[in-house]
Structure formats: structure tokens, C-alpha cells
Amino acid sequence: MKKHNFSAGPSILPQVAIENTAKAVNELNGIGLSLLEISHRSKDFQAVMDETVDLFKELLNIPEGYQVLFLGGGASLQFAMVPFNLMKTKAAYLETGVWAKKAAKEAKLFGEVNIVASSADKNFNFIPRGYTVPSDSDYFHITTNNTIYGTEIRTDYDCRVPLVADMSSDIFSRKMDVSKYALIYGGAQKNLGPAGVTFIIVREDILGQVERAIPTMLDYRTHIKEGSMFNTPPVLPIFTIRETLRWIKSLGGVEAIEKMNIEKADLLYNAIDQSKMFIGTAEKESRSLMNICFVMKDQYKDKEEAFMEHTKKYGMVGLKGHRSVGGFRASTYNALPKESVEALIKCMQDFEKENA
Q: How far apart are CA 200 and CA 102, in angstroms?
């Protein structure tokens, strides 16, 4: 039976990226050696790294003055690296979920953190609006997509201070203006590749402004100078990212991907909105294209476990909602085909016919 992978991360990847990575694990470029056993400084892997950086810049139209890095430690390490490198005295944070809260917690180790707005009072089911970012902030940090709660910032903010964004779960999902950001980071395991590598897009002129000493490995300038090879980079995930970016380019780039993502999300949200049994949890104006969260209406709450069992008959994987929200979560990342969304809708409608 075909599996429909709605997992929130690690998550679905393009089949061609998986197949090409598997081939490279056996043998890279016909050299008689596996990707896993060659030097990261060999010409064969350097070519992989160079192309991956070039594709990042091309597909996101990254302007001059920015650098693309691939590091370890996950987005969680960036929660500390960002303030370590950028915070002089104070920074502003938008609190839109668990990961935004964790980022702010780490920043408090380096200076004053101003939570300019929060959606915690409604269990993070909306993106706050109408707040002011203090002009004396060293930077303003946002989390663009909130996987647990199904909300997303789908516009590029105009900001008077350097804008920093955690884009772990929506990078390459929509057209964006990189020039409006000072630094963008994220884990790869949603839309790009397997777990184990973190991407950073950083504007060089914001670095070197703090007075504190920064440990070598935590200084972005170290990794810029060494081309992400100060120490051994996560070679396999970087290779898979390259294959994923090649796939995105073959489809017509980020503009084409965004159109596909809107189509998939509209299909599922419309089905939820028209359902007698299911209801979405995120405010409509804040809905994510990447993580679609929904629950049973109150009179059907006792049927949630039965629905999860029902989904197995249709090959559905990864639909259980996060424990802090409950219900169900369909992660519709770039590589998820429309047919999987259509299969989920049929699964929901069949269950509703039998139980509503």
C-alpha cells in the first residue's frame, strides 16, 4: 500500500533526492568510494558543497553581501548563536509558539529580551499584529512557521532593526525577499533534507559588532572564512539538500513550489471548513501552508482514536497532532504530492459518512 507521509519532521523528501542519496552512499560519481568515506575536503565533495550554496543563492535570489552556511547543532543551537553574535544589550522577540519561546529563553543569557507580542493566551493559534518593535533593539527575532500550532507568517516584514528569522519549516515554500532579513536559519529536516544539518543565510555586515569574546566554533565569521568547513560538515545531509534543490529547480523554482503549496493547503482547509465533524485550530488569517492542524468538533471528541485507526487503512502516516494541541496535524511540505492531500480528504469524508 502507498504511504502518505504527513510527518512533521523528519518528513517527506522528494523521491529523486532519496534515490540519488542512496546511490551516493554506495558510490559517489563513479569514483569507487562511498559519500560516507571520502574526505570533506576532496574535490568531489567540494563540488557538492559549492553547488548547494549556489542553488541556495539562485533559488532564493540571495543578494550580494550574504553568505550561506551549513553547520551542525540544529536550529536549537542557533537560538544561542544568534544572540552570541548579534546582541549587544537588548533584542526583541515575537512569541508565536514553543520554538519561539525556546529561542527567547536562550537569548536572555546574553542581555535583555523584549517580548513585543505573544499569542500564548490563545494557545498560539494566531500570529500577533499591531505591536511595535523598539528602535533600539539590536535585532528582531521571529519564527515564521509554527509546526505545532499550524500558524505561519507568510509575508516579509519591513523592519527598522535587523530582522532574524527561524525558517526551519517553511524555507523554500514561498517566494521571499531575502534582503529584508539580516539572518535566516533553520534545521533541514522539514523541506530540505535529513536531520543533521542547519542552514544559515547571514548578511556579513551585521557581524563583528559585539564586544564579547565568541568561542571559535560559535562565531559565524569562522564558518564564513572556512566555507562551512572549519570542522567536518554533515556531508550526507548536505548532499541530500543539493538533490532537493535540484528537484525544486526542475519544477520551476520557488514560485512553482509556492503555487503547488497553496493549492494543496486550499484543498485541505476547504475540506475541513465544510466538514460536519472536523474543525481547524488556527485562526484563518494565520493559517500555515506547511502544517494544517485540526480536531474533532466537541460532539465527536470521543471518535478521535477511531479516526486515527481509520487513517491506517488509507496508508496515512504522521497525522497525530502535537500533545499540546491534540487532534490531528497534516504536514504538507514541498515534497508532499497533491494526491496525498486528496487521499486524506477522502479518508476524512469516508469516516464522516460512517460516523457523523
A: 18
Tell me, yes or no, if 190 is annotated catalytic. Answer: yes
How many other C-beta atoms lie within 10 A of the C-beta of residue 320?
16
195, 220, 251: which is the final residue of a domain?
A: 251
- pTM score: 0.98
Q: What integer best gives the mean pLDDT of the chain?
A: 97
The CATH number of the domain where 269 resides is what? 3.90.1150.10
- Among 99, 138, 170, 247, the active-site one is 99
Do 257 and 236 lie in a common domain? no
Domain that holds residue 291: 253-355
Contact between residue 199 and residue 188 where contact means Cβ atoms under 8 Å apart: yes
Spot the catalytic one: 3, 54, 156, 166. 166
Q: Is the dihedral of CA 140, 146, 151, 156 positive or negative?
A: positive
pLDDT digits (tens, 9 = 90+) for 103-121: 999 999 999 999 999 999 9
Q: How remote is the C-alpha of 138 from its chain's centroid?
A: 24
Alpha helices in the chain (DSSP H): 15-26, 43-59, 74-86, 98-107, 220-225, 235-251, 254-273, 304-312, 338-355
One domain, residues 171 and 316:
no
Annotated catalytic residue, options 170, 190, 219, 303: 190
